[in-house]
Amino acid sequence: MKKRLGSCLCGQVKYEVKGEPIRVGICHCANCRRESGSAFTFYAIWTRDNFRATGETTLAHNGQRFCTRCSSHMFAYDDDEAEVQLGSLSDAPTNLVPTYELWVKRREPWLAPVPGAEQHLEDRHTRRADDDRA
Question: Is the pLDDT assigned to residue 134 strictly greater than 80?
Answer without folding.
Answer: no
